[in-house]
Structure formats: structure tokens, C-alpha cells
Amino acid sequence: MRKIIGALIAAILVEIAVFIVVGKLLGVLPTLLLIMLTSVIGALVAKKQGIESVRRLQTNLAEGNAPGVAIIDTFLIFAGGVLLVAPGFLTDLLGVSLILPYTRKLFKPAIYYWLRNKMKNGQMFIIHK
């Protein structure tokens, strides 16, 4: 828990530093407009991608296929959307990388590894009906 709080505080401090640097380069008003623009565009893209991902999830379930990949895609797109709506340039970069299919692939192995470890340690299990 302390690591998470420490990482969150560090991320906030880095975001503030980036705001200051970008604000000095572009000015206050353009920086604020850029932050608002990225939030709006990010929310729209995340909504579109999220709807497509939920449809794939529903299709997999309707066909009787395992929805594992679709669930992970949906989760990553949702997380990316949340990061895009949050103010900040670094969160926007991470959010875009979670939403775009090509860069989202880079995060999947880490998610699979984390899930396998949780299942191996008995902290997570799958119920078959």
C-alpha cells in the first residue's frame, strides 16, 4: 500500500513539473486549452473503443468462447479512458497507449503474468458452471 501511495505522489509531482514546463513554453491559456482538448478527445475515443470492446465481449459470450482477451481489452480501454480524462500530459500519454490497439498489446503480457501469479498463489480463481 505504501508503494502505491508513493507512486501516486511521485506521479502527481511529475505532472506538476510537466505543467510548469509546458506552461512556460506555451503560456498558461494554451496549456489549459490543450489539457481540456486532450481530455475531451480522449473521452470520445475511449467511449468509441470501449463500446467496440464490450460488443466483442458480448459476441464471445454469445458464441460460447472464453472472453478472457476481451475482458482484458475492455479493462485496459477503461483504464486508458480514465487516465485521458484526468488532467495531465503524462497521464494522457499513458491513457492513449492503453486505448490504441497497437500499444495496448505491450501491456497485455504484464497483465497475463500478474493474473497467472494471482491464480498460482490461490489469490484468484476461476469458477466453471
From TrEMBL:
One of its GO terms (cellular component) is membrane. Pfam families: FxsA. Keywords: Membrane, Transmembrane, Transmembrane helix. It comes from the Bacteria. The chain crosses the membrane at residues 5-22, 28-46, 67-90, 96-115. PANTHER family: UPF0716 PROTEIN FXSA. This is Exlusion protein FxsA.
